């Protein structure tokens, strides 16, 4: 417990030393528990073969720990004020590069080449800024050029539950399915809000996403994502009514036939359907020209 207090003190002193105030607009809640930082590195499974892209290094606490295990670390930070701090706090590490950028604007193909990262061994690790967790996850998952080996992220506990939920649960939704489509997901560690500075209102959790060894692109991803999005648009409505919304009232009979063929109840809600069933449903809708 003493060490943990020391680490909180170190963070406070560093902020004071560099005259920094954590910025709410950038979701700056620094992790001040060294055990949790070590846990994140363990969960990520980073080894000397891996290049890591860290999103939002802050003052570099997690970055330094990652650099001790990884081949290279590229830390992408949006806050200009933190860039010069990081170049001082991480000065002793020859395998860390710092890039000042909004992660959502990063062209991974270009950055991977520029920093000499190994495209087949890239792991993403981050204590994510909560205000843009979902856009960042979607941006990472939908990259066409690079399929990250793993994505280990600290997110709000509620988001972690949505990311890793199973069919039939209240948290199960379009985010769950999108993640499941690309990667295997596991909620590994719950983290109390008292381990952050400043303290957020909610607890957090670490989710580990790993590359699917058998990943095959669905023949029409765009339509699959559209069906999933629409079917969870009005959670109170059942699946049939959401699909009527999507395809038009006149198609209700055709939709009921598809339900019949798929052996699914006409009153079923979207949260009961597995990813596989959503794929079959999309294929069936396309066959009868209800989707383009
Ligand atoms: N890694 C540090 C830690 O664990 O203590 C800081 C984590 S803090 C929750 C989120 C970090 O992401 C901050 O450093 C913040 O400035 C940075 N950040 C926020 N939005 C960003 C964006 N769009 N692109 C890159 N970094 C961002």
User: What class would the helix/strand composition place it in?
Assistant: alpha/beta
Strand element count: 9
Strand content: 15-25%
* Tally of separate helices: 12
**Distance N terminus to C terminus?**
59 Å
Report on the structure:
By secondary structure, the protein is an alpha/beta fold. The protein contains twelve helices and nine strands. The strands form two sheets. The protein has a seven-stranded mixed β-sheet with strand order 4-3-2-5-6-9-7. α3 (61-69) links the parallel β2 (51-55) and β3 (72-77). α2 (34-44) crosses α3 (61-69) and α9 (221-231) packs across α12 (275-287). The longest helix is centred in the N-terminal third of the chain and has 16 residues, at 2-17. The chain is elongated and about 70 Å long. The chain starts with a helix and ends in a 5-residue tail after the last helix. 36% of the residues are buried. The structure holds S-adenosylmethionine. The site of S-adenosylmethionine (SAM) has 23 residues, from β1, α3 and β3.
């Amino acid at each position: 417990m003493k060490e943990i207090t020391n680490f909180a003190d170190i963070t406070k002193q560093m902020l004071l030393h560099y005259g920094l105030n954590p910025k709410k607009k950038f979701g700056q809640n620094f992790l001040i528990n060294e055990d949790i930082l070590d846990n994140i590195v363990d969960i990520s499974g980073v080894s000397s073969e891996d290049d890591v892209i860290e999103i939002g290094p802050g003052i570099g606490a997690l970055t330094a720990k990652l650099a001790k295990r990884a081949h290279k670390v590229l830390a992408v930070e949006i806050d200009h004020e933190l860039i010069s701090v990081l170049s001082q706090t991480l000065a002793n590490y020859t395998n860390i590069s710092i890039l000042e950028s909004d992660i959502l604007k990063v062209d991974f193909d270009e950055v991977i080449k520029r920093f000499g990262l190994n495209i087949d061994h890239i792991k993403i690790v981050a204590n994510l800024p909560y205000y843009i967790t979902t856009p960042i996850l979607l941006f990472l998952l939908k990259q066409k050029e690079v399929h990250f080996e793993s994505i280990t992220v600290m997110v709000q506990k509620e988001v972690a539950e949505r990311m890793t939920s199973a069919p039939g649960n209240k948290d199960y939704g379009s985010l769950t399915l999108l993640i499941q489509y690309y990667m295997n997901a596991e909620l590994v560690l719950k983290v109390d809000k008292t381990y952050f500075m400043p303290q957020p209102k909610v607890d957090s959790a670490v989710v580990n996403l790993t590359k699917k060894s058998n990943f095959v692109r669905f023949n029409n991803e765009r339509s699959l994502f559209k069906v999933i999005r629409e079917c969870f648009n009005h959670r109170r409505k059942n699946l049939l009514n959401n699909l009527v919304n999507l395809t038009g009232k006149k198609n209700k009979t055709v939709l009921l036939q598809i339900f019949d063929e798929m052996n699914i109840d006409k009153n079923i809600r979207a949260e009961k359907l597995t990813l596989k069933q959503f794929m079959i449903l999309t294929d069936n809708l396309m066959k009868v020209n209800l989707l383009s």
